[in-house]
Amino acid sequence: MLLECRSCWPHLLGIAGLSILSLPLTLLYPLPLKVVVDSVLGTQPLPSWLVRSVPLLRARGASLEAAIGILVGIALLVSVQNLAAWWLQTYTGEKLVWDFRARLLDHVQRLPLVFHDRYGATDSVYRIQHDAPSIQYVTIQGLVPLMTAVFTLVGMIVVTARMDVALAGIALTITPALFVLSLGCSRIVRKRS
């Protein structure tokens, strides 16, 4: 399967990068709430990095505008990231399916006529038409999310360990139990589906 995807590795890495980028962007959403609570409702000044980056915010009443601007900016960045990820996933998925179908068609045309007499031409056409998209599902909806989840897990462990080593240890002891439970549930779902 991985050899079939070798022409799209840069695209798949781009999709993985965009997926990983969504995590820090999503973590920025509490920032406007912090500005509202601390600077609009509270008495703390705006964060210095914000005042340095936008000089118009030096005025006292600009705290709410800053929070709204930050929220709109984060939403815009997340939307652009989602659009880029969707476009790249669609392009890469269609390219994978197109290339795989071309290889399957080339293989089917080289098969002996006895094969086609035994199984019929419709079997080969069905395989090319309906089984070829599985490469898209496995790579884009399976492999890339798996890589993203692994990087997210490692990042969460690192961040948690920097905050509190004991908390990270507790999280790591719970992780195998959650993994076993997840495997058990997925087997049940697969049987019933």
Brief sketch in words of this structure:
The chain has 193 residues and is mainly alpha-helical. It has helices spanning 9-27, 30-41, 48-53, 63-110, 113-119, 121-131, 134-163, 165-192.
Fold and architecture overview:
With 193 residues, the chain is mostly helical. The protein has a single domain (6-145), classed as ABC transporter transmembrane region fold (Up-down Bundle), CATH 1.20.1560.10. The chain is built from 8 helices and no strands. Helix 1 packs antiparallel against helix 4 (63-110), helix 1 packs across helix 7 and helix 7 (134-163) runs antiparallel to helix 8. The radius of gyration is 25 Å and the shape is elongated. The model has no long low-confidence stretch (mean pLDDT 83).
| Helix count from the secondary structure assignment | 8
Q: Tally of extended strands? A: 0
* Anisotropy-based shape: elongated
**Per DSSP, what share of the residues sits in E-state strands of 2 or more residues?**
under 5%
The string of secondary-structure elements, in order, is: HHHHHHHH
